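Help needed: design a sequence for this.
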């Protein structure tokens, strides 16, 4: 049976949580975010990996990196159907 809403403890999770609480940094861009970024970069061979807090933030970052401006047409998938994104 799969236990839902019960986090598995398989390593150093308890110590890491205590470390985060001690550092008073429980939001993104902290020590463990940086460690995850470095791990992803090493594992994938990419030059830079960035974790985001949501798909919305990732999409906004992609739009900035693509240099999208008002008037540009962007088609994206949302809620199981395609839609046109209006950039104003």
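Sure. Designed sequence:
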């Amino acid at each position: 049976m799969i236990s839902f809403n019960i986090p598995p403890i398989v390593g150093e999770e308890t110590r890491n949580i205590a470390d985060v609480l001690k550092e008073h940094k429980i939001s993104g861009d902290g020590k463990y975010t940086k460690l995850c970024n470095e791990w992803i970069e090493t594992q994938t061979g990419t030059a830079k990996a960035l974790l985001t807090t949501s798909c919305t933030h990732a999409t906004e970052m992609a739009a900035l990196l693509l240099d999208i401006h008002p008037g540009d047409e962007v088609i994206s998938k949302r809620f199981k159907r395609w839609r046109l994104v209006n950039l104003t």
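Residues 31-44 form the longest helix (14 residues).
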